[in-house]
Design a protein that fits this description.
alpha/beta; three-stranded mixed β-sheet; 8 strands; globular
Length: 187
């Protein structure tokens, strides 16, 4: 039996949302958050084929984590709606863009930005190897966003280089979001 006194507010909210087939990913999208989010999505899919909502509020992330979550989003058989809540930036935009249905809350904002390369020490060859891997992952992000939005890869790459911001309405025009949520209508 669960001890409700030990449950924190955040875990209570997450449990209640999970019971309603809503997964919330908020904060920097690192490997741990991406893995936890993917596990929740896969668990919900295994429990029932009913629709799932993934609410994202991720101001940045690592490209590897975003691409791994995007892979999970793409292979789900359950109907999935990604909902942008707050800011979705950098590589985290790829996880959002991978969803078949993409909705943005009216005040959601997006920042298309290249992934930041963490500081590395080591030999010149090691640093070069890390840089080449980040460039490959950046190209994967460009490819995913290009396919999701219907835009040319060169245009998407230019927007990532400049760190372009998009409002919810602009994201619809860009092809990133399919619509802006009106009232309580998300799904």
């Amino acid at each position: 039996m669960r001890d409700d006194r030990a449950m924190t507010f955040d875990s209570y909210v997450a449990e209640q949302l999970f019971a309603r087939r809503v997964v919330l990913a908020r904060g920097f999208l690192d490997e741990e958050r991406a893995t936890r989010t993917a596990a929740q999505l896969l668990t919900l899919e295994a429990l029932a084929p009913d629709p799932i909502q993934l609410h994202l509020s991720c101001p940045d992330g690592t490209p590897g984590a975003a691409l791994s979550l995007a892979d999970t989003v793409r292979v789900l058989r359950a109907e999935l709606t990604a909902v942008a809540v707050g800011e979705v930036s950098g590589p985290a935009v790829a996880a959002y863009a991978a969803a078949p249905v993409r909705v943005a809350y009216p005040h959601a904002r997006f920042r298309l930005a290249e992934p930041k390369v963490p500081e590395r020490t080591g030999t010149a060859t090691e640093v070069d190897t890390y840089a080449q891997e980040y460039l490959r992952q950046r190209d994967d992000l460009v490819d995913l966003l290009s396919k999701a939005t219907g835009r040319q890869a060169e245009s998407v790459a230019a927007d990532l280089r400049t760190g372009r911001f998009l409002t919810a309405e602009e994201a619809v025009g860009y092809g990133l979001a399919q619509r802006v949520a009106a009232g309580r209508s998300v799904g």
